[in-house]
Amino acid sequence: MGSSTGLGSLTGTAVSPGAGYGPAHVLAGEIPEPDKESRHGGDAAAERARAERAVEEVAADLEARGARAGGEAQEVLGAQALMARDPSLAAEVGALIDRGVAAPRAVFDAFGKYRDLLAAAGGYLAERVTDLDDIRDRTIAVLTGLPMPGVPASAAEPFVLVARDLAPADTALLSKDVVAAFVTEQGGPTSHTAILARAMGVPAVVGCAGATAIAPGTPVLVDGGSGEVLLAPGPDRVAAARRAVEARRAALSAADGPGATADGHAVPLLANIGGPRDLPGALEHGAEGVGLYRTEFLFLDRASAPSAKEQEEAYRAVFEAFPGGRVVVRTLDSGADKPLAFLPPPEEEPNPALGERGLRMFRRYPEIMAAQLGALAAAAAGASAKVQVMAPMVATAEEAEWFAEACRTAGLDSAGIMIEVPSAALRAADLIRAVDFFSIGTNDLTQYALAADRQVSAVAGLQDPWHPAVLDLIAMAASAASEAGKGCGVCGEAAADPVLACVLVGMGVTSLSMGAPALPWVRAALARHTLGECRSAAVAARFAVSAGDAKAAARAVLPGLEDLGL
Ligand code: PEP
Ligand code: MG
């Protein structure tokens, strides 16, 4: 531990490049229940005033956050603030304090009573229980000096968000202006924290043991390239990290235009998006279209199926952003790491990743598939973008045929499938006959090839798309598509790794789709290598025995990586 590393360092898996520096905001765990027997000192009026101030502070904070976020978030947070100021709740808290109960316990009990009433009412009211719990926890945090639960949507300076793990809902309101970096204790390179961080262009380290023990407010320097997390680093380290980032940025901005190797072999570079809100980033980074529109991200917080009109609008907004370009839409991939409340599996599954998810859900709920395909066809009707639709989690040729037929019935003329199950890659020649294109989902393909759940950080080391077993499966799918004269893209996170992107192109992959901030890196890496060099890198990688060796072997034959600092 030297002066340049201050309080020491932690290490995790680097999943989103760049350096981020700021005070740690440690996402609090659950607020503990205040002691049942806790009593105040005897001055009930003062204790009441203290409770009222705490509730008001929470309500005002919710309102202020809503005002900053605007839109739907403002409505939700405004409704929560109203709930906090409910006079009958205040009366209940006051009555308990008058009986000697300390304010934190009085808040807990009073909110508990209303919580039970709401839960018993069922339906919409029962869904408000979580909001009420959130207000209760925030008020108790103010009263007891505990860190505030939840992620702040704004801050005086960008902070490093430290958490055990992050759910998509935790991060809905976050932006790059607020978060300097992410550090999580759990998760691997394909966890949604990692995907989100890359989509936002924010440096991130996941699977970082001990992260939540960082004292809140500690200045933290996160290196999203090496996985190092420095606690209270000296100014020399912070300045060096910033200089390295600047140097790379300059090298990157030199590459623009459509994706191609140094000798002019075109490789369209497309963006992965979760909805219209990701469009500005995709356009800013020069995406030539969309290679993966994760439509389930539009509806993660929905208890009921979205209407046809609502879907159509969200699809049309994306089609219109790429006139004449390609937009590949994935049908709802519900289940496992992306559960949708309106598409529940019929029973508790012991292994959700192996259960009813993706296309399997559509076989259970065909009316939801028909509605989505109908909305897509309606939105595509007037659009000049080339709309392609694909299904996730396809395992057999029969499933591929079933999906392609449903697309044709809906009036969609380009139907494809994701290759993310090993059986589909192994028998790619059978599956390609039924569809127009493949798109390889390397996140799930790696998970299933190595039998390593992408949500379990203990096996994150196995979750590496560089593993030659995964490379072999990718090569099989790419060559089956090429023999059939059809396209085979990659839209998993492997496409966002500039070195691996060269290897994928060398294996015959025809387009690459990634979180927008990775586009300049991949564009620059391809522009520095010929197709022949990419092919040599692919051969070298597939000859290796381990993921680490595959990466080293590919790098050794890709001379242009160095000036990108890769
Ligand atoms: C994949 O599995 O590689 C993929 C692109 O889909 P998702 O990460 O959304 O499961
Ligand atoms: Mg997938």
Automatic annotation (TrEMBL):
The active site is at residues 192, 491. One of its GO terms (biological process) is phosphoenolpyruvate-dependent sugar phosphotransferase system. Residues 11-128 form the Phosphotransferase system enzyme I N-terminal domain. Its EC number is 2.7.3.9. This is Phosphoenolpyruvate-protein phosphotransferase. Belongs to the PEP-utilizing enzyme family. The gene is ptsP. One of its GO terms (cellular component) is cytoplasm. GO terms for molecular function: kinase activity; metal ion binding; phosphoenolpyruvate-protein phosphotransferase activity. Keywords: Cytoplasm, Kinase, Magnesium, Metal-binding, Phosphotransferase system, Pyruvate, Sugar transport, Transferase, Transport. It is found in: Cytoplasm. It catalyses: L-histidyl-[protein] + phosphoenolpyruvate = N(pros)-phospho-L-histidyl-[protein] + pyruvate. It comes from Microbispora cellulosiformans.
